[in-house]
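Hi there, hope your week has been kind to you so far. For a while now I've been wondering how a particular protein folds. I'm sending you its amino acid sequence along with the backbone structure tokens. Could you read through the record and tell me how the tokens relate to the sequence? Take your time with it, there's no hurry, and the full record follows here.
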Amino acid sequence: MAMNVGSASDDDAGGVMVDINTTPLIDVMLVLLIMFIITIPIQTHAVKMNMPVPSKNAPPPKPPEVIRIDVDFDGTIGWNGEIIPDRATLESRLQKVAMEPDQPEVHLRPNKLVTYKVVAMIMASAQRLGVTKIGIVGNEQFL
């Protein structure tokens, strides 16, 4: 460490020392830091969840029934691989699906080249008749 003894010139003789003593400030800072670390609540990374208790008598869940409606590029509609001849037949089948207490999932798979009018007609009919589990699948072809 260096010590300021003074100089031989008349300008600095008897002058006031302007350096601040930082040692007490560092001590106070360290005490505050230690107090801050002590008072921080301990962080737990656990997530509490209420998990269902498995029943010994519960049957295994059955896979959901899926009805696949394919729409070809020319507007031809297929129901699980079977060609639907007209709109009335399609609506009667959608009516049967809507009346079931546990509705099966309806997967609508339009061709990339089909007009939107045909797809919108199928979705509007399904909505009007009360089909609630309907979705469009095969979106990867539109990327």
Observations:
- The domain at 66-142 is CATH 3.30.420.40 (Nucleotidyltransferase; domain 5).
- Strands lie at 66-71, 77-79, 82-84, 105-110, 134-136.
